[in-house]
Specification:
With 132 residues, the protein is mainly α. It is built from five helices and no strands. The relative contact order is 0.07.
Length: 132
Amino acid sequence: MSRQQLTSPWETEYNDFDYDHVDAETLKKWEAEFRRKNWSDMRSYLKQFPDATPEEKKALHSWVRSGHSPYENGDFIATESGGPMDFINALRFLENEYQEYLKNPEDYRGHPDEPVSDRVPSKGSDGDDLPF
């Protein structure tokens, strides 16, 4: 049995392709296909957000127009599971954080200028003891 029979047709098709030296016409096709997919994704994505404001929609259109997916954000905000947060939820998250900050800037997420620990060595210690 030959190697050709053991592999899938996609595997042999892409194994011979030189991804380092792609001609300009192929790159244009790939980019157009990628943009079409992102626009299609954006249309279906917006159906999940019927309450999206015109500002959110405008920002999303600009984001997708620049070549990005609506399922990612430029601020690298992650969900609780660690994956990228989608665009509109990331916008809303940042807005909520900003509003929280405006309520009380002094107490927002603690005071980063304060030292983390004010540990003073115990009286019986010469200061060389390990902290545990």
